[in-house]
User: Fold this.
Amino acid sequence: MARKYIVEGGTNLQGEITIRGAKNAVTKEMVAALLAPGVSRLRNVPDIGDVDITRRVLESLGCGVRHDAAAGTLEIDGSTLSTPEVPAEYSGLNRIPILMVGPLLHRFGRAVVPMMGGCGIGERPIDFHLQGFESLGAKVEYHDGAYHFSAERLTGTRITLPFPSVGATENLMMAAALAHGTTEIRNAAIEPEIVDLALLLQAMGAIISQETDRTWVIQGVDSLRPADHRVLNDRIEAASFAVSAVATGGDVFIRGADQLHLLTFLNWLRRAGGEFDVKPDGIRFYGRDRKLKSIAAETGVHPGLMTDWQQPLVILLTQATGMSVIHETVYENRFGYVEALNRMGAHIQVFDECLGGKDCRFRHLGHRHSAVILGPTPLRGAEMEIPDLRAGFSYLVAAVLAKGKSTLTGVRYIERGYDHVVEKFRSLGASIEVVEE
Ligand code: UD1
Assistant:
């Protein structure tokens, strides 16, 4: 049954919400639990679709998984892992199955990961993952719609990533934890969610250190043991609600918003005229009586402005006076969602050029990766089909901000990544009706 949200906009959000564990950490940590025989426990687990999908993938491999959504705990029994072959039905979710390779290789000496369309070196490439596994000594072949990895035991090596990919860093870090010898991953990603994964691996018995200049050093050990780990809070959820508070001229306390992991975001929010008070247990965000200002910013890998903060920020900038520029340097194609905002009354144009910052690796490749936003523009309600997770949340913020009624379809994308999103918005005063069709 498809669900849709009917939003009556124009609300100033007021009140308090609590942030849960990070989507981008918890799914990888569920996979990491497979590296040890026995039951690992994760706490502060968000109640989101991606956790369910990852649970199903793990169960399909024979693992026992107990999820107590109300308590926010997950217990994963890695000892019952019974097959190295990820079923084909999960081939569309290439981020999760490809991360299984390390644990499966260590347990079975081989791993089979289905990948529809074969090469996978298109829109959502996995070439860094494949090259990394080859450097660690695995044989990688593609046939019958799947990647086939084999290795008696992975061997530590030095890997330099062409770009600090989050997924490739996590994948190779997990694989290196049980490899023979020491692995160095250079030009690696250092996002807080990766540090959280490293903390879990260390608690499981790994020897893992973060060196200067984006380098992780992992000294392989012979075995790992289960651990009990609290997932770090979701900095994307926190920033998304922060923007919602400021853009609607509201006042919201976000319990669990962590200043350390929001440092860059908070600076940009303040430059754009949003305000916040840091408290011991969270951050209060407010936009009431404030004039929003245009900014020129570019997204980047950590500690830069995170690409997943880009979409909510653009909504905010539609309400700022003047011309703002956002240069997206992490993904080549992350502005598709602005068309719907323009239908709501925004003035946003997207360009191939590297605007508002340094040239990036997408220069001259024809990717529309810079946006110019003219504001302020009042938004009006519209019918919107959600194209992906982060854009989906932005549509929801835009709908809450807009005058009149909006209808959002494809809301499963939002629910894959945001914990109890409708309840949280409603508790802040937004009018959202959920309709099942
Ligand atoms: C993760 C996050 C996502 C976030 C992104 C960047 C999860 C579940 N998702 O995605 O929310 O936006 O990090 O912070 O954690 N690339 C290659 N070859 C590869 C791998 C990546 O070219 O083998 C490219 C990608 O196309 C992209 C860039 O590297 O342009 C960054 O991708 P990556 O950091 O790997 O993103 P994900 O781990 O998929």
Summary: The chain has two domains: 3-19+233-436, 23-230. Residues 63 and 72 are 19 Å apart (CA to CA). Residues 235-247 form the longest helix (13 residues). Residues 24, 95, 125-129, 163, 165-168, 189, 307-308, 330-331 surround uridine-diphosphate-N-acetylglucosamine (CB under 6 Å).
